[in-house]
Amino acid sequence: MPPRACLIPGCPRNAMRGSSRCSQHGGRNTNADRGYDAQHEAIAKRVRQATHCAKCGARGTIDNPIEAGHIIPRAEGGTNTPGNYRPECRRCNRSAGGRLGQQRRRRR
Ligand SMILES: [Zn+2]
Ligand SMILES: [Zn+2]
Q1: Which ligand is nearest to the CA of 35?
Q2: How far apart are CA 83 and CA 3, in angstroms?
Q3: If 0-12 CB within 10 Å is exposed, 13-18 middle and 19+ buried, where does residue 22 land?
Q4: Same domain, 45 and 25
């Protein structure tokens, strides 16, 4: 299959395999960026109302607030459906990045 162009208008890169966006736009960019649609926002808003992290059980604080995390990362084919969200504290959400199961990334 020839690579498709990145979905983001004006982006010169090609999309990643299995994605409609390039690594810059499909990966770990900020949520505020494009790619997260209104549906995501609606779900995320609800998920953030949880008081505890579903992963480590920590209580949300100002330093470590509860965020909406994807159970299956979007990079691995996760979708923006309600079933793919859970509340995670910021620490867990950030560290989840590309690390799931055995796939461990080395720290630089
Ligand atoms: Zn792009
Ligand atoms: Zn946590």
Answers
A1: 1
A2: 30
A3: buried
A4: no
